[in-house]
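Section 5.1 Outputs to date
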Amino acid sequence: MPKPLSPFLRYRAAINLLTAVILSLLVITLEKSPTMIVIRGGIQDASEYLYRPLLWLDTIFTIEKRYKDLQERHIKTQIELNQLRTLSEENKRLRRTLQFKELRGFEVIPANVLSNAGSHTISGLTIDQGAEDGVKLLAGVVDSRAQLVGKVVQVGPNTALVQLLNDKNFRVSVREMRSRNVGILSFSPRGGYEIKDVPKNASVIAGDSVVTSGFSDIFPEHVFVGWVSDITPVIEDYVKSVKVNVASDFNRLEEVFILTAENEEKK
């Protein structure tokens, strides 16, 4: 048989309500009494002390969240800034391409660089234009500023291999613009770019411009090659060697232009 509940437990809801009503009446009655004002002030002070750590914790979590939000916005802004910089450089490069000077007697075929690895026997790069696009064997190649890059030495249906100036077997006839002297430019790993056997009395100084001479069916005249960097007397001072700094940066090429002679196109 279940044990009967005590009167307190049986009527606890009513007791709680009655207690709450009595306390409420006391608070209302004694609202303006000095004792109640002191008690209320003490409760408020105690609440403030209890609330301060909670406010401090909330501030810390809020600051941390804001910091993470700022970090995320900073990263996104940096990515957008880098994209704008890339687009700006691409825009400058394309503007130079649109302003590409016409080369008399030559057709210009634009091509993208697929690889700058070349092969084990040649220093070169692979481009995405080939025989089906009009590319011819031994066609000259320049960059977007019409600066000499090399020549085509292998042609496939849709790709071609370009031999660069820094290949040890590359030779090109060049002219020093101020003195008008002509020579053959070549490259060696030890000596760099060099025009050999220049006459001793040739008036060549550092900083002079070097261009193609035009004595070739591959390159038109006045394609820019680079600048004279140094002059070294050789063979008992009868001739001298002219060092050249090449203008085109082969490691940063993204597109090139193939020069195909017009008479070859018409055949």
